[in-house]
C-alpha cells in the first residue's frame, strides 16, 4: 500500500510516500507540515526513511521523522547532513512488501535516485520526471540538462510499457500509462 501523506497540504513541500507492508518506509519526508502525525495516523512504526534526493522541500521534515521514529535515513550521498547510509546505484532495497532497484539518476540534483520494482510494477521517480511530459528543473545548483536526459533514458531501459504506477516528487501520481509519460518527458527534455 502506497499513500501520499502530503496530498492536500497547502505548504511548499514535496510528496511524501508511506509504503506500508513488511518493511514500512517513508520515501522523502517533505517540508513545512506535520508529517510525523500523518505517519502515526496510519502506521505504528517506520523501518527507514528513503530519500530520492536532498533538496530542502524533500528533506525539511527529515530530523523530525528520524527523531520521532528512531530510524535512519538512506540516500545516495552520506556526505550530506542527515543521510545515515548510502544506497548504491543498482542496489536493491525493500520498500513495503517489494524489492526495488535504486537507480542513480543525476541531472536535477547529483544525489538523485529513482526506485523501480518490476514485481510491484511501480516507479518512484522523485523529481526526475512528472506527469504529462514534465521533468525536473535543471536551473538549480547541480542541475544538468544532458545528465537529466541520460537519466530519463536510463529509467526507460528499466521500466516497461506495462508499468502500472509512477509516484513523483510533486503533483499527482500517474496510474494510467505511466511509461508513456516518461517517454514524453524524454522527448520534452530534449526540446526545451
TrEMBL record:
Q: Which residue stretches, if any, does this entry annotate as coiled coil? A: none
The GO molecular function terms of this record are: hydrolase activity; metal ion binding
Which cofactors does this gene product need? Answer: Zn(2+)
Task: Write out the transmembrane intervals.
Answer: none
Any keyword Hydrolase?
Answer: yes
- Annotated Gene3D superfamilies: Ribonuclease Z/Hydroxyacylglutathione hydrolase-like
- State the UniProt keywords alphabetically: Hydrolase, Metal-binding, Zinc
Domain named Metallo-beta-lactamase: residues: 13-170
Query: Does the keyword section mention Hydrolase?
Result: yes
N-terminal signal peptide: none
Q: Which CDD domains match?
A: metallo-hydrolase-like_MBL-fold
Pfam families from the xrefs?
Lactamase_B
What protein does this entry describe? MBL fold metallo-hydrolase
Amino acid at each position: 500500500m502506497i499513500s501520499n501523506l502530503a496530498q492536500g497540504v497547502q505548504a511548499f513541500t514535496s510528496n511524501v510516500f508511506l509504503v506500508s507492508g513488511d518493511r514500512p518506509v517513508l520515501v522523502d519526508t517533505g517540508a513545512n507540515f506535520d508529517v510525523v502525525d500523518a505517519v502515526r495516523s496510519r502506521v505504528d512504526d517506520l523501518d527507514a526513511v528513503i530519500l530520492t534526493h536532498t533538496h530542502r522541500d524533500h528533506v525539511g521534515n527529515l530530523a523530525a521523522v528520524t527523531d520521532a521514529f528512531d530510524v535512519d535515513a538512506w540516500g545516495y550521498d552520506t556526505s550530506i547532513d542527515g543521510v545515515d547510509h548510502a544506497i548504491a546505484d543498482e542496489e536493491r532495497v525493500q520498500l513495503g512488501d517489494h524489492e526495488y532497484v535504486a537507480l542513480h539518476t543525476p541531472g536535477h540534483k547529483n544525489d538523485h535516485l529513482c526506485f523501480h520494482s518490476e514485481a510491484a510494477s511501480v516507479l518512484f521517480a522523485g523529481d526526475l520526471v512528472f506527469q504529462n511530459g514534465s521533468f525536473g528543473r535543471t536551473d538549480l545548483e547541480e542541475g544538468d540538462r544532458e545528465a537529466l536526459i541520460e537519466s530519463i533514458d536510463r529509467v526507460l531501459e528499466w521500466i516497461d510499457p506495462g508499468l502500472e504506477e509512477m509516484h513523483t516528487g510533486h503533483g499527482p501520481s500517474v496510474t494510467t500509462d505511466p511509461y508513456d509519460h516518461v517517454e514524453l518527458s524524454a522527448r520534452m527534455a530534449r526540446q526545451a
